[in-house]
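Example 9 (inverse folding). The structure is encoded as follows.
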């Protein structure tokens, strides 16, 4: 029996993840597919509410604790994702574990340049990756890449904790390293695709669609099952 596909949108703030993920859902539904759209963090669960308060600066958390809460917020959706894929519903995610890895590791790069003594446990790429090992593995991750200048032209950032130029710069650097194949989250042929998000809305949509179509054909042709995210 056919299965649903797991498609992830990743990228910086303002790169168009929400807009493009919703456009893709509409397009797939118009093609007759069943689709579930989800976003991370899911701020509606008890864990999501802790994350929401942290992002809004209403509470503080140790860097390791907040990282694990972001991961737990994905784990609480894991069985829902699996059951939808098994029932031939495609799942489209607005952010997933790549955000977890990129944002937390970026923080360590910031603190290592601004503070003279190293943090007690460095937030290495491997440490940041390990809590998400075992989650449903995306069939395709679309990394919407946008320069900071282009993001600024889209009205600048909001007021949440990570919405600062210095942080966004580091996050973009880490996403780039992952895209180049660094660490266990690193590029696996064809599964982590960079899309130039600085183009017009329709052009980006077209590029997204071409990548989705290619992935779809290859999953069906090769009869690939649903995978889990593994360490190399
Ligand atoms: N975070 C984390 O640290 N660890 C984790 O594990 C996870 C997340 C999962 C959640 O933010 C924060 O949590 C985030 C990472 C961290 N922190 N930061 N920074 P969020 O997901 O709630 O917010 P966001 O999605 O990053 O921000 P956003 O502004 O909603 O960005 P977007 O969804 O990528 O963009 P958009 O809403 O589709 O578009 C933004 C604007 O640009 C809008 O006016 C559009 O009309 C416009 N736009 C979009 N595309 C185009 C094109 N192609 N041309 C022109 N204008 C465009
Ligand atoms: Mg968004």
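The amino acid assigned to each position is listed next.
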């Amino acid at each position: 029996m056919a299965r649903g596909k797991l498609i992830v949108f990743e990228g910086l703030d303002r790169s168009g993840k929400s807009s493009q993920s919703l456009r893709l859902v509409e397009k797939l539904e118009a093609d007759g597919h069943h689709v579930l759209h989800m976003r991370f963090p899911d701020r509606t669960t008890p864990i999501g509410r802790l994350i929401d308060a942290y992002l809004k600066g209403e509470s503080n958390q140790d860097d390791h604790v907040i990282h694990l809460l972001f991961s737990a917020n994905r784990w609480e959706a894991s069985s829902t994702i699996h059951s939808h894929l098994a029932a031939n519903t495609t799942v489209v995610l607005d952010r997933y574990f790549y955000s977890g890895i990129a944002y937390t590791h970026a923080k360590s790069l910031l603190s290592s340049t601004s503070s003279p003594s190293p943090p007690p446990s460095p937030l290495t790429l491997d440490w940041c990756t390990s809590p998400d090992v075992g989650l449903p593995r995306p069939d395709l991750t679309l990394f919407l890449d946008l320069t900071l200048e282009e993001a600024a032209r889209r009205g600048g950032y909001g007021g949440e904790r990570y919405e600062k130029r210095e942080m966004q710069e580091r996050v973009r650097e880490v996403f780039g390293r992952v895209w180049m194949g660094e660490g266990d989250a690193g590029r696996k042929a064809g599964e982590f695709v960079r899309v130039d998000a600085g183009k017009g809305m329709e052009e980006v949509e077209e590029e997204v669609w071409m990548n989705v179509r290619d992935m779809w054909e290859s999953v069906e042709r090769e009869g690939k099952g649903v995978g889990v995210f593994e360490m190399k």
